[in-house]
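Lecture notes, continued. The same structure-token format from the folding unit now serves as the input rather than the output. Read the line below as a description of shape only.
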């Protein structure tokens, strides 16, 4: 089967339009999450440890989230980083250092001990929610500022 000259050009133009529309659509969706987000972390009491909750501002730029509570490397710190896909799926990773023993399961962990865990999150519009994958139960709420 052969195409006439006009058909080939029309097919090329239509293909180019579909590619541009698809690229633009996904690019805009990822950018919708960019900005500052109030982040609330709430962890339930576990074993003999008290529950806790705190808030801080995270920032999303080009679909990459970064939020910090405290000072990196210091006791009672938490750094959350990760990618938010165009569909709102967030694969985040938390690293930090423990604070007061009353809030650490087992209580024999020295202050300032490093910890880390994964967070499964989902963002839609101006809100997001997530859960800690490993360890004690923790929830995450995100609200775009």
């Amino acid at each position: 089967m052969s195409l006439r000259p006009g058909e080939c050009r029309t097919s090329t133009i239509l293909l180019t339009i579909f590619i541009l529309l698809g690229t633009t659509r996904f690019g805009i969706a990822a950018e919708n999450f960019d900005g500052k987000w109030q982040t609330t972390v709430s962890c339930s009491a576990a074993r003999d440890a008290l529950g806790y909750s705190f808030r801080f501002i995270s920032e999303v730029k080009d679909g990459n989230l970064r939020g910090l509570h405290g000072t990196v490397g210091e006791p009672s710190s938490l750094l959350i980083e990760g990618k938010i896909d165009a569909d709102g799926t967030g694969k985040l990773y938390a690293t930090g250092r423990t604070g007061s023993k009353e809030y650490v399961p087992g209580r024999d962990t020295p202050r300032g001990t490093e910890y880390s865990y994964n967070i499964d999150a989902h963002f839609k519009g101006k809100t997001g929610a997530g859960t800690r994958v490993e360890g004690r139960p923790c929830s995450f709420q995100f609200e775009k500022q």
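Point for the exam: The two ends are 57 Å apart (CA to CA).
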